[in-house]
Amino acid sequence: FLDAYDCIRRDSYPDVLRSLALAARSLPEPQPRELLQQLCAQVQGGAQPNLAQLLAVRSLFSGSLLALNRLRVDHVRALSQVLFLTPHLPAFLLRHRLRSHVLEIRHLDRALQHLGLGQLSEEELRAACYLRGLNSTHLGQAECRAWLEQWLRLSCELQASEASLLAHSMVLLSLNYSQP
């Protein structure tokens, strides 16, 4: 069932990337805009972004056109599907639910960082990855741990106002990660 649900989630990944690339073109500042466009092109081309690339564009995701409360409705719907949230709600409810779920994951990340990944069983490790967008059913425990460590470094670095970047990272970090 996890594979079937992941297929549903992955169906929305191209929409999220397209919406992100489209929104990037509308950004006023040339240097961060170009970095984000390169990041989108890289992921669309099959590459895996690194933490430094994501952190380099973090300022774009709070207060600009890429903040959760400013995204286009179709963009919010696609992100909602990544989190298995129903996309069939009014825009203000979609945004509220998306933000709430992303911030809940961020709180869980902080607790997990404090606890330490070594405390997780293999099943808990896989569930933590799956919750954050990575289908871990076909990955080894070391791959899951490496991905989750990268995710936690990003999540614990971001502020609540950068929740949009965390939501997008569910796609950016998992789309090309060791596909089965």
UniProtKB/TrEMBL annotation:
PANTHER family, per database record: LETM1 DOMAIN-CONTAINING PROTEIN 1, LEUCINE ZIPPER-EF-HAND CONTAINING TRANSMEMBRANE PROTEIN
A Pfam family of this chain: LETM1_RBD
Localization (cell): Mitochondrion inner membrane
PROSITE patterns noted in UniProt: LETM1_RBD
GO cellular component: mitochondrial inner membrane
GO biological process, one term: intracellular monoatomic cation homeostasis
InterPro entries: LETM1-like_RBD, LETM1/MDM38-like
Lineage: Eukaryota, Metazoa, Chordata, Craniata, Vertebrata
Domain of life, per lineage: Eukaryota
Protein's UniProt name: LTMD1 protein
Domain (Letm1 RBD): residue spans on this chain: 4-180
